[in-house]
């Protein structure tokens, strides 16, 4: 897929990146190269291959999923503008 200069300008605008006009052809070329590489990756047959988290096989550390208050509510609420009865107090927004 080929990216033209107008598309590169639009992508830069959407990404909020200021790109000088004389750099737009290089940006368009780089974006085209990236899309070409992504198309090549799409052609790779990955059926039956397990997803990996690293190039070396390892098991991720797991912990029990337990809901807690963090164990130190006083520290959490210390800098709150308004805290009552162990909770953040916020203005009422619904009548």
From TrEMBL:
EC identifiers of the protein: 6.3.5.-
InterPro entries (alphabetical): Asp/Glu-ADT_sf_sub_c, GatC
Record GO terms (molecular function): asparaginyl-tRNA synthase (glutamine-hydrolyzing) activity; ATP binding; glutaminyl-tRNA synthase (glutamine-hydrolyzing) activity; transferase activity
Gene3D superfamilies reported in the protein's UniProt record: Glu-tRNAGln amidotransferase C subunit, N-terminal domain (1.10.20.60)
Swiss-Prot/TrEMBL catalytic activity: L-aspartyl-tRNA(Asn) + L-glutamine + ATP + H2O = L-asparaginyl-tRNA(Asn) + L-glutamate + ADP + phosphate + 2 H(+); L-glutamyl-tRNA(Gln) + L-glutamine + ATP + H2O = L-glutaminyl-tRNA(Gln) + L-glutamate + ADP + phosphate + H(+)
Keywords assigned by UniProt, alphabetized: ATP-binding, Ligase, Nucleotide-binding, Protein biosynthesis, Transferase
Enzyme type, top EC level: ligase
One of the GO BP terms on file: translation
Coiled-coil residues: none
Assembly, per entry: Heterotrimer of A, B and C subunits.
Function of the molecule: Allows the formation of correctly charged Asn-tRNA(Asn) or Gln-tRNA(Gln) through the transamidation of misacylated Asp-tRNA(Asn) or Glu-tRNA(Gln) in organisms which lack either or both of asparaginyl-tRNA or glutaminyl-tRNA synthetases. The reaction takes place in the presence of glutamine and ATP through an activated phospho-Asp-tRNA(Asn) or phospho-Glu-tRNA(Gln).
Family under the similarity heading: Belongs to the GatC family.
Protein name as annotated: Aspartyl/glutamyl-tRNA(Asn/Gln) amidotransferase subunit C
Species in which this protein is naturally found: Thioclava dalianensis
């Amino acid at each position: 897929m080929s990216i033209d200069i107008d598309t590169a300008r639009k992508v830069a605008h959407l990404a909020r990146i200021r790109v000088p006009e004389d750099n737009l052809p290089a940006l368009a070329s780089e974006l085209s190269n990236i899309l070409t590489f992504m198309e090549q990756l799409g052609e790779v047959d990955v059926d039956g291959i397990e997803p990996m988290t690293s190039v070396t096989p390892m098991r991720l550390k797991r912990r029990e999923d337990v809901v807690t208050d963090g164990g130190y509510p006083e520290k959490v609420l210390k800098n709150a503008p308004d805290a009552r009865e162990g909770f953040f107090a916020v203005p009422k927004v619904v009548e």
